Amino acid sequence: MALWIAALLGAVQGVFMFLPVSSTAHMVLLEHWLIGRSYAVPAPESAQMILFNLVVHLGTLVSIGLVFAPQLLRFSRYALRDGYAWARAGGRQGPPLYARLFLLGMLSVLCTGVVGLSLKATLEQAFAAPSVVAIALIATGILLFWTDKLPPRRRTLRGTGVGTATLIGVAQGFALMPGLSRSAMTIVFGLFAGLKRRWAAEYSFFLAIPTICAASLLQAVEVYQLGGLGGVSYAALATGFVTAALVGVISLRLVVYCLYRAQLKAFAFYVWALAAAILAGVIELPA
């Protein structure tokens, strides 16, 4: 893979990672388009290319660290403090707030892992089928449009429990399919569970950190077992990672602005238009 292609894919990931329009779908469609024009790009459904997609996802985690640095540092400090105090008390009572939120986040990741690993082979087949990606984009648009119709949510993170964490984790597991936006699925189902928009967004973005790290590690092991990176060089991985990190900061600030103002339906019209273009053949892709 040429470095300019890696940079282009990294930029696409950075632009669309936090916008609720499925960055993976955009990368998969671009990869199909490049392959159809005889550029040297591994098949989107190959283990090597799925690993590349996850590495550029890792790049956008840097964006989360930059935009939400104060919140992340505060949460980490309080979670360690609460966890230590809870352990010293022998865990006889329920965990304090931040320790409980950490445990709920791990529960969400566990639920994501159960769904993702159980359906991994089935969901990854969509990487080779642009028409399936289009259908998933339509579903994402319906969820986004519906979300803006919801009345104000009242629940804060203090009111988050096992049921909410499980629901968000399961929703994130299905977002392995390109076209089902991870940020859209987690934010939308957080809102359905009653979380305020701000807390649904922050829970979603913070949850991305352990989820994407774990998925990347598992995929790296699979690629190693299959014999290596093939047509994807380490330089390409690094280029995609850095580009996604730099571009992702702008994207993240935009989606936070829109989410707090209940303006997600604009993204619904975008994903519907993209899906229609794919199904109608306006966006020319190889069969």
Describe what you observe in this structure.
The protein is mainly α. The protein has helices spanning 3-16, 23-36, 47-67, 69-88, 97-124, 130-147, 162-174, 182-192, 197-226, 234-260, 265-279.
Topology diagram in text:
Blueprint: H1 3-16, H2 23-36, H3 47-67, H4 69-88, H5 97-124, H6 130-147, H7 162-174, H8 182-192, H9 197-226, H10 234-260, H11 265-279
Helix pairs in contact: 1-2, 1-3, 1-10, 3-9, 3-10, 4-5, 5-7, 5-9, 6-8, 6-11, 7-8, 8-9
Question: Short description, anyone?
Answer:
With 287 residues, the protein is mainly alpha-helical.
What value does the average pLDDT take? Answer: 84
Helix content: over 70%
The radius of gyration computed from the alpha-carbon positions, rounded to a whole number of angstroms, is 19 Å
Strand content: under 5%
Kindly name the structural category. mainly alpha
Question: What's the N-to-C terminus distance?
Answer: 21 Å
Uncertain spans, ≥5 residues at pLDDT below 50?
A: none
Give the helix tally: 11
- Inertia-based shape: globular
Largest sheet: none
Which key features would you list for this structure?
287 residues, mainly alpha, 11 helices, globular
